[in-house]
């Protein structure tokens, strides 16, 4: 990729925004922390941590079942998140927002519920070669059970999907296309609208894994046109243990519940059980209430900055880091798409990624090394592991400089 040049509107003071994240002001191994593992989990602003604290101290009660005031308050706060999420991703109806425990759970829900009901022997599921394991294994499990077959869109040398190959894989046998929006291993941003339009021409349904897109850019599910969209709260300044499945209402209404238990039923007897309406019939048992409420505050926080501003800021920082990294002798990018966001993956032929990660950590720089739960992606590039720097809007050019200096320092060990 050639030099990336960008400019961003200056309305938001992003350097000041770091002060919202207490975790970022600490020293790690005697150095100021440089946190570049946002792809794994982003940090939480004090505003979200305070909201969780307040809930646990003063508002805790179970939801959807209490007549008492505290339970009603907890329910109202928890249900407010559904509305916030609906607006955040521009879903048509609030009941198209299903609460889950994260992206993994959301994809499992669709694979098991939709797959069990609609897949038949010989039906085809199209995935891509750059999927996270969370968007591979659930489909394999359901394919084994139903006799459906998995087809894979190849990735080219720059880390982009081979769209011609995708078109030739599509046919009337295709029942589901499940594709990652932004690759957690390569950083590639995929053309999900085009992917969806092509799948719909064959009457196939489309699931987009948005774990790495929702935290970094505005997402409009109606504009994409996809049938399902999955993401996690903990990658977007929210708490762990909570996530979202967006699904078109007419599809969710036809899908059987995925898990049975309290809250998801209408009437239960030993002879027959009837189920609650969408989305509640997919939400069995006591949920992670505080995490759900925390997501609402995280969305408020992100909205206050503006997702357009966040996307522009990250583009500027990632471009700056990319341009400096490409000058380092021996560094090879894995994934070099023009359309990239938030993630830079790289290798050195003579330095193992885990050595790189360990030595960077000694200088207070947190990166992820390994296969990033995307083994087929790395196999495509014939590498067992990469070092991955994944950025957020609170990262700075100074963080990028510290990364570059850190890599130069690690290189001196191996020269
Ligand atoms: N899909 C993508 C694209 C992801 O990046 C991840 C997590 C998941 C699904 C699973 O999300 P979860 O919240 O259900 O666990 N990705 C990473 C990562 O890149 N490093 O650690 C976790």
Helix vs. strand class: alpha/beta
Find the CATH superfamily of the largest domain.
Type I PLP-dependent aspartate aminotransferase-like (Major domain)
The total tally of domains equals: 2
Bound chemical compounds: ligand 7TS
Low-confidence stretches: 4-10
Would you mind describing this structure in some detail?
The protein is of the alpha/beta class and 415 residues long. The chain has two domains: 14-32 and 306-411, Aspartate Aminotransferase, domain 1; 49-303, Aspartate Aminotransferase, domain 2. The chain is 39% helix and 16% strand. The chain is built from 14 helices and 17 strands. A seven-stranded mixed β-sheet has the order 4-10-9-8-7-5-6, sandwiched between helices. Strands 13-14-17-16 form a four-stranded antiparallel β-sheet, covered by helices on one side. The protein has a two-stranded antiparallel sheet with strand order 1-2. Strand 1 and strand 2 (31-32) form a beta hairpin. The longest helix has 21 residues, at 69-89. The two termini are 27 Å apart. Bound molecules: ligand 7TS. The site of ligand 7TS has 16 residues, from helix 4. Ligand 7TS is lined by residues 39-40, 102-104, 132, 134, 180, 184, 209, 211-212, 232, 368, 372-373.
């Amino acid at each position: 990729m050639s030099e990336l040049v960008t400019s961003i509107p200056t309305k938001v003071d992003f350097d000041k925004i770091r002060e919202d994240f207490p975790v970022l002001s600490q020293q790690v191994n005697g150095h100021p922390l440089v946190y570049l593992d946002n792809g794994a989990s982003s940090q939480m602003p004090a505003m979200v941590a305070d909201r969780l604290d307040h809930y646990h101290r003063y508002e805790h009660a179970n939801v959807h079942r209490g007549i008492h005031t505290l339970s009603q308050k907890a329910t109202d706060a928890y249900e407010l998140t559904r509305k916030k999420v609906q607006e955040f991703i521009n879903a048509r109806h609030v009941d198209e927002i299903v609460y889950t425990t994260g992206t993994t759970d959301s994809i499992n829900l669709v694979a098991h519920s939709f797959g069990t009901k609609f897949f038949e022997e010989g039906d085809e599921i199209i995935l891509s070669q750059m999927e996270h394991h969370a968007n591979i294994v659930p489909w394999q499990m359901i394919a084994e059970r139903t006799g459906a077959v998995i087809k894979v869109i190849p990735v080219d040398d720059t880390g982009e999907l081979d769209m011609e190959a995708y078109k030739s894989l599509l046919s009337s046998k295709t029942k589901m296309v499940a594709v990652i929006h932004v690759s957690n291993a390569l950083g590639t941003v995929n053309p999900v609208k085009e992917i969806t339009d092509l799948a719909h021409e064959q009457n196939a349904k489309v699931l987009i894994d948005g774990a790495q897109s929702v935290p970094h850019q505005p997402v409009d599910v109606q504009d994409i046109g996809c049938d399902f969209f999955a993401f996690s709260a903990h990658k977007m300044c929210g708490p762990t243990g909570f996530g979202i499945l967006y699904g078109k209402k007419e599809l969710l209404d036809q899908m059987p519940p995925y898990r049975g238990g309290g809250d998801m039923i209408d009437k239960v007897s030993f002879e027959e059980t009837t189920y609650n309406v969408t989305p509640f019939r997919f939400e069995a048992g006591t949920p992670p209430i505080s995490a759900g409420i925390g997501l609402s505050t995280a969305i408020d926080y992100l909205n206050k900055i503006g997702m357009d501003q966040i996307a522009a800021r990250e583009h500027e920082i990632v471009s700056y880091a990319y341009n400096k990294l490409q000058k380092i002798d021996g560094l090879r990018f894995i994934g070099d798409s023009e359309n990239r966001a938030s993630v830079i993956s790289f290798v050195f032929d003579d330095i193992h990624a885990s050595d790189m990660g360990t030595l960077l950590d000694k200088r207070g720089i947190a990166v992820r090394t390994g296969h990033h739960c995307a083994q087929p992606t790395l196999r495509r590039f014939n590498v067992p592991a990469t070092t991955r720097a994944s950025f957020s809007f609170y990262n700075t050019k100074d963080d990028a400089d510290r990364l570059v200096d850190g890599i130069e320092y690690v290189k001196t060990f191996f020269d």
